[in-house]
Input
Amino acid sequence: MIYSEKVMDHFTNPRNVGEIADADGVGEVGNAKCGDIMKMYIKVDGGVISDVKFKTFGCGAAIATSSMATELIKGKTIDEALKLTNRAVVEALEGLPPAKLHCSVLAEQAMKSAIADYYKKQGIDPTPIIGDLGECEDCQGCH
Amino acid sequence: MGEKFIYCDNAATTKVSKSVLDAMLPYFTEEYGNASSIYMLGQSAAKALLKARETVACAIGAKPHEIFFTSGGSEADNWAIKGMALNGAKSGKKHIITSVFEHHAVLHTCEFLEKQGYEVTYIPVDGNGLINPDDVKNAIREDTCLVTIMFANNEIGTIQPIKEIGEICKEKKVPFHTDAVQAVGNVEIDVKAMDIDMLSLSGHKIHAPKGVGALYIRGGISLPNLIHGGAQEKSKRAGTENIPSIVGLAQAMRDAAENIKEKQKKVSKLRDRLIDGILKIQETRLNGDREKRLCGNVNISIRGVEGESLLLMLDMYGILASSGSACTSGSLDPSHVLLSIGLPHETAHGSLRLSISEETTDEDVDYILDTIPKVVDRLRSMSPLWERICKNEGITGTI
Output
């Protein structure tokens, strides 16, 4: 298994690591049993994701995909961020080994879960906007 | 960062030693004959083969005619297990006993045989990674055709009570095979004194090249031919002998046997420093028995971090190690060995194995002990799992 230089760069120097104390939305996906947990914090100003931070427990690809996902949504509107797919994260990282594709799915879900939390805090039901995020148990990764 | 290179994955493979390489070199371009040829060049290859067989036999207390060269440990395991299964079936014996934490070369072979209608009993191991010989005794049945239990575990380094299991099998008249790939060169082995009927060994774990190994088969036991074709290895394993590698294996076995006590003393001291040093990091645990352990094996679980990212980061500091995390096992579950000793998944994902050798130095150990806490601290600082562990269990501080 070989990681691209871009993956190694984001693993070695992950962007936007940390927490946001007064975050407008926080999302956490994955579980310890499967070996990956991603937690994402967003700050929203006038519909724009003005700041984003993450913390990840997981393999090199899990850390790199979280880092890349935060870079891709920082400064974007929520609508733009919601259009971000796991495929875009993989492409931006110049590819992932097949066994690691689920990490990019997790990164997409972490971001969506943070936005869903933001909507909930605004008193808006996120389901019609974001759709069903699915449970970790539905993930193909563990089965 | 960048200049250091400390190889701590000798349980995965080893560097070919200078004495092994020197012994092998003439057999590539000078003594390159086929050992089956009648002229002098062929005969000198045949002599080298004869000598190598004697050396390998001597190192484990066997007779030369009981040594069969193979391509490595996995082939030897496959041959012993499938061969005894075929033999057993002739008299209606289709039950095999093994353990839950064998190498996959044994486990997957047993699973294959289960699909062919054999029954397999998997002996559990205790929390320290040791097998209770009484469990083996109690599992033996009238129709048991083979007991196969590893000599030393490849991940957690625990050395099993092989002599006791050998005695039981002898008394019950059940053939006993052991996968000794990790033990050879690290533990003194005497197949006769230990009542071992078959033993698998591999060259590349003891500074010989990859692609060579052997199966010891006690005289009187006849395994079906593994490869049909020529008369090599008493027609049991056809194919022109890999003389350079076989010579290399013999040299490595001789070197290991000569230095074993010295190695055990030197390497276990370094191992103990590593274990004690790493265990100073909070929320860590040693996997596998502390005493009944290979001299070069360190296996520690570090809560809140994941093994693969730990390895990648250690690699950046020039430390080459391995882990039992799912991400490094090539499957989605963490190591079956770590699960077998009762570790929860999340703890198994955060395991680190360092397997050192006689080349490891005190300075290397200092560097490793200086580096690991830094790397763990960095990974824990970005781990939501660690955050949760600290919050739920009231742990403070970063290391």
User: Anything to note?
Assistant: Residues 12 and 205 of chain B are 7 Å apart (CA to CA). The two ends of chain B are 21 Å apart (CA to CA). The mean pLDDT of chain B is 96.
